[in-house]
Design a protein that fits this description.
By secondary structure, the protein is an alpha/beta fold. It folds into 2 domains: about 5-85, no CATH class; about 95-310, 3-Layer(aba) Sandwich (Rossmann fold). The protein contains 11 helices and 12 strands. The protein has helices at about 5-15, 20-30, 35-40, 50-60, 65-75, 75-85, 95-105, 175-185, 190-205, 220-225, 245-260, and strands at about 110-115, 130-135, 135-140, 145, 150, 160-170, 210-215, 235-240, 265-270, 285-290, 295-300, 305-310. The strands form 2 sheets. Strands 5-12-11-10-9-8-1-6-7 form a 9-stranded mixed β-sheet. Strands 3-2-4 form a 3-stranded mixed β-sheet, with no helix packed on it. α1 packs antiparallel against α2 (about 20-30). It is globular, with a radius of gyration of 19 Å. The protein starts with a helix and ends with a strand.
Length: about 300
């Protein structure tokens, strides 16, 4: 896929109906020869739309007007390029807990959670958040995570979590304002509710920080998993992470995690984690496949806003 095609894909499948600003900007970049020439020498992971837009927002640049965006990137390209190499799309969306919760609540309790690609670890607190599935409310406090759930009864209990750990090449600290600013920059412009959710979830994590380990998802996973307490069900999980990992390493990770005790929850795009024949997704928007131990269960939107169960 060319860079221009990847921007069209992001705009039409991920941003359409979710962020008009980013849909418009993606289509503009896909037709902007000067910006495409600047992006061309970068590795694919460094020229993806979410990363570029987040970097420009972090630097105080405009994303609501494509012409102003073009001028800012061109005028500040050395700084923009340096940030593209220094950062990664570490979107830490606690809303994703809403699609994980039906699986987590059904596993043998208590749980030892280990998230691969944990960023700041905000998805390691599914037991601390409140949830709203239509008219069904579960839990108390903030943030409240809304999810439209189809084909599955909403969970009736929160999981019991006795250990929480994360593995990331560059773990972020919720107590560092600069690192929270990067997470904020990755939230799409119109999503003020997600900004409020980020702050509320960061306060939960800061009050009881998880164990976050800098490391590789293959080389360093076994040692971290071995720290899980006896008597708890180990759950290794990841969501919208493996697209950044080369295919051979994905395959090595899948083989490794299948051999660990406990369970494995993946929530990735269908082309990232192949599952064979799947039912058609509910619509043309981008959906992840939620799977338990390699068995697909549901289609899930990338920010946890909806899920359609088929398993």
């Amino acid at each position: 896929m060319t860079t221009a095609e990847s921007y069209v894909e992001f705009g039409t499948r991920e941003a359409r109906g979710v962020s008009p600003t980013y849909e418009r900007l993606c289509l503009a970049v896909s037709r902007d020869a000067e910006l495409l020439d600047l992006l061309a020498p970068l590795p694919p992971a460094r020229r993806q739309p979410n990363l570029l837009f987040g970097v420009v927002r972090l630097l105080g640049g405009p994303v609501d007007d494509p012409a102003a965006f073009h001028d800012f990137v061109v005028a500040n390209w050395p700084t923009v390029e340096a940030e593209l190499y220094a950062r990664a799309t570490q979107t830490n969306e606690p809303g994703r807990c809403a699609v994980l919760l039906p699986v987590l609540a059904a596993l043998p309790q208590p749980l030892a959670l280990l998230e691969v690609g944990a960023s700041a670890g905000l998805c390691l607190y599914p037991d601390r958040y409140a949830y709203r599935y239509g008219d069904h409310l579960l839990g108390t406090g903030e943030p409240v995570l809304d999810c439209a759930a189809t084909g599955v009864a909403p969970p009736t209990r929160l999981p019991e979590v006795v250990w929480r750990a994360g593995l990331d090449l560059n773990p972020l600290r919720v107590t560092d304002p600069a690192e929270i600013a990067w997470l904020d920059a990755l939230i799409w412009p119109e999503h003020t509710h997600r900004r409020a959710r980020l702050r509320a979830a960061a306060a939960v994590a800061a009050a009881d920080p998880p164990l976050l380990t800098r490391g590789d998802l293959v080389d360093d996973l076994p040692a971290l998993a071995a720290q899980a307490p006896a008597g708890a069900t180990l759950v290794v999980f990841h969501t919208s992470v493996l697209y950044q990992v080369p295919t051979p390493r994905r395959e090595a990770f899948a083989q490794l995690v299948r051999g660990l005790p406990g369970h494995w929850i993946s929530n990735e795009a269908p082309e990232v984690m192949p599952h064979g024949v799947l039912p058609d997704p509910p619509d043309s928007a981008l959906h992840n496949v939620l799977a338990l131990d390699g068995r697909p269960l549901a289609w899930a939107r990338s920010h946890g806003q909806a899920m359609t169960w088929f398993g």
